[in-house]
What we know:
The chain is of the alpha/beta class. It has helices at 3-13, 18-37, 96-99, 104-122, 124-136, 186-196, 209-220, 283-290, 301-304, 306-322, 360-367, 374-384, 391-423, 443-447, 451-459, 466-472, 481-497, 502-505, and strands at residues 46-47, 59-67, 71-80, 85-93, 149-155, 159-163, 166-169, 201-207, 229-233, 237-244, 262-266, 344-345, 386-387, 436-441, 473-477, 515-523. Helix content is 40%, strand content 18%. α2 packs across α13 and α13 packs across α15. The longest helix has 33 residues, at 391-423. Belongs to the hexokinase family.
Amino acid sequence: MSLEAETKSFVSKFEYSDEDVNKAVKEFLRQMGEGLEKDGTSLSQIPTYVTAVPNGTEKGLYMAVDLGGTNFRVCSIQLNGDTTFNLTYTKVAIPKDLMVAKTAKELFAFLAKQVELFLVTHHGDHFERHVRRRLTVSSPDGFKDENVFRLGFTFSFPVQQVGINKGTLIRWTKGFDIPDAVGKDVCALLQTEIDKLHLPVKVAALVNDTVGTLMARSYTSPGKTGAVLGAIFGTGTNGAYVEKLSNLKKPLTGEYDNSTGDMVINTEWGSFDNQLNVLPNTSWDIELDKTSVNPGIQMYEKRVSGMFLGEILRLAILDLLKNPKVAFFKDENSSSNDWKSTTHIAPNSSIYEQWGIDTAIMSVAAADNTPELSILRQELESTLSVYSPAHDDAQAFKAIAGAVARRAARLAAVAIAAIVLQTGKLIDPESKDEPIDIGVDGSLVEHYPYFRDMITETLRVIDGVGEEGAKRIRIGVAKDGSGVGAALIALVAAGMEKNTSTADYFRELRSSAPVTLTSVMEDDAVDE
Length: 528
Ligand code: ADP
Ligand code: MG
């Protein structure tokens, strides 16, 4: 069989038809409803106790940290009170061994250390003064509380939130596995390690990255209405949206402000359709799941997000390599290669290792429209040790990678459409001509060429959305949304300490906020 014919057959296995998409949207809506009614469903629909969005007049210096899945970010944000802010951040890759550490302490001590490094580097004066003060006062509570940085902790794993800075870990995702942390309050775990280092920092708010993205997008997007959805397409995928309190049927245990009639819900949509009623399931999806640390769960995430797309592609590529009748990444002799060389893969190529293909190469493949695919061919050589790949090898790689990503984007559209339909905005006469604003964050959606366009193209064929609806849905990248959003929620939390309601703090925020990046320092961060 020719490589071309075989590639076509592989590509066709990743097709997800318009009909499939429509069926999945209906199922997504059904599973959303189920999650609003009771606990223990596949879409967790976790209440966040966030009931309103900010208004741009807030002032002060806040900190935020973000444990995403691949990187750990630390930032400080000066809110200027006139809808502008200055952001300083650092980013470091999370060491792989800490993701599966024996105890939670190992991971959280590392995180606290990064906070200390950040303070020393970027807020040296403040740090010095307060450490000195703290050491000279006998009681740890004896120094003034207002000198302490309020920190918003973006923790992007499923958490049962029981208060603005308190929440217990439900389960790990995205390759993390530290059983000791499950069931514990992650804010307390971080605060304990911060206190051991005597840092002037209080973990004031626990924030999911989706909620942070929603807040940040609401803060910065033009127009008078806030965003309806914050969505992540990074290592993992998830979304948080604004739901009517009246639709939330399961009991709420914590305190909240009900004056807005709304509450932000963290869907935990990575677990959509774990039962596989509507999700596609190729032999490669099955294999990926079987060898993962959490078989049977996060089934939607395993078909959509950055951590997994490269691995799906790798498993498909391995199958193609196994077929002795197909000349892929190998040729008989140099005459069959347009570079007049002989293609071969190094035996120690990461193609042969689990997680050996980073999703980032799929973006390179998609972006390379040069006639000879020379950029991709160079990338295959440098990252996967495939020497002298021929033009048709690169074409096959590009086609299969494109099919995996396209299926992911179509699945992303399923979640987005279902949530837009759930908000009722498309049929509400009051919001007839208004755009429906969605904030997105994560390397996949930010860097994969045309990812957002593929989503929009899919939205057009969805019943109840259609051409007209798709036109109104505005998807904007909220860059560093989780950092800015976490700082904004830390600010709400500071207000709550003084007994001010959330809504007073965050009312009618609709103006745009130019971002000033004062300094960016990247330490060994994983490429984005
Ligand atoms: P986090 O999830 O930790 O917040 P990111 O949003 O940066 O971090 O997402 C990291 C994920 O995105 C990784 O799985 C990585 O493989 C993937 N990724 C990184 N760069 C790219 C890229 N250029 N194109 C597509 N995916 C990418
Ligand atoms: Mg992230």
